[in-house]
Amino acid sequence: MLKKLLVAIDGSEYSWRALEYAGAVAKMTGGELVVLTVAKDGLTHTPSLPLEGELAGDVNEPAMQVGNEVLGAAKHLLDKQGIPCSYTLVIGSRPAPEIIKCCRKEHCDTIVIGTRGFGAIEGLFKNSVSHIVIENSPVPVIVIK
Known about the structure:
The chain is an alpha/beta fold. It has 6 helices and 5 strands. 45% of the residues lie in helices and 20% in strands. The protein has a 5-stranded parallel sheet with strand order 3-2-1-4-5, with helices on both faces. Helix 4 packs across helix 6. The longest helix has 18 residues.
């Protein structure tokens, strides 16, 4: 357990905290990270972060650009720590099922995800990604506030 962690990031403050936590756990356990971002189709692109060359690929679509920028920033942070990582960008409109699908595909033993901290009732009404992942995950989920 805690040898292959999937960490889902979206560029929010909460997801950066989850990335930081997952990195610390991976470093402590000698594990590896699978860093995933799910970019929503139809996003408009506002350049803010430099793209990493090996992540850029075909960036004609705004969603691809946004996703690559988020992953590029994560790669920049993790490269300094020497943690084995892989990076995955999925274009889709429903992040929770994509997180679970990636977890299964990559044979991860833990998911680390950030949350804004909605309560149980409010999270249900807002279709909280973290709540859906917790309810449907085949592996333990660590939620970072």
